[in-house]
Amino acid sequence: MLEEIATDELQTPKMLTNGLQILPNNERQVRPLASLEPEVQREAWQKAVEEAGGKVPSGRIVKNVVQRIMERTQVPNTYQIGEVCQILVKDNPELRGKGGCWGIVSAVNEFSCTVRMWDGEYAVGLQHLKSYNYLPAECEQMREICDRISRVYSSALEESVQKFLESLGKLNRAYLTDLEEKLLTVLESEIRE
Fold it and tell me: CA 118, CA 134: separation in Å to the nearest integer?
């Protein structure tokens, strides 16, 4: 791919700086391009170079350009407010630590959703969501669990308590066991006092 970019840039004078080709100088700059077809990769690289003012673009600029290209070719958002979804981190460092966690869709945008989790709300691209396909009653149960965890969760809590609450945020079932329910109830009563 780099050779293709180099060849294409040789043919495009505006992509040259002082007669030198503008080529990636690290893997982070080309990694986002891998999800695109080769002919679109060249277009994305050229757009990223333009956005970087004719210089070598950062990985973030390339990623943003690729995201915009992918958004214009994606199918419409079919998620519903209140739907319970699993977070798929894939190549999104902003979701690090959230892989496998569940969240509740609180807003539906054209190519993303705002998802409420135990520790806040996150804007998540559609490619990073997978619906659990829960029934409405199960979604309501998960919303109640999310509300309860959110009221208790704090970075000021002991690490073991934080880990317990985070593990509840990774459950792949729409209910708490009797023991989980008792532990959460104890935490709720401790926090209220």
Answer: 19
Residue the block writes with tokens 């066991």: 177
Q: Which residues pair with 87 in a beta bridge?
A: 129
CA-CA distances (angstroms) from residue 98 to 6, 71, 111, 158, 171? 37, 22, 20, 20, 12
| Digit-coded pLDDT (tens) for 118-174 | 888 998 888 899 999 999 999 999 999 999 999 999 888 999 999 999 999 999 899
Cα dihedral across residues 154, 157, 158, 161: positive or negative: negative
State how far the Cα of 180 lies from the Cα of 186, in Å rounded to an integer.
Answer: 10
Picking from 159, 153, 103, the residue whose alpha carbon sits closest to that of residue 128 is 103
Phi, psi dihedral angles at 16 (to 5 degrees): -105, 145
CB of 153 closer than 8 Å to CB of 118: yes
Predicted TM-score (pTM) of the model is: 0.61
**Structure token pair of residue 42:** 């060249």
Q: Enumerate residues 6+ apart whose C-beta is below 8 A from 92.
A: 125, 128
Instruction: Note whether 104 and 83 are within 8 A (CB).
Output: yes
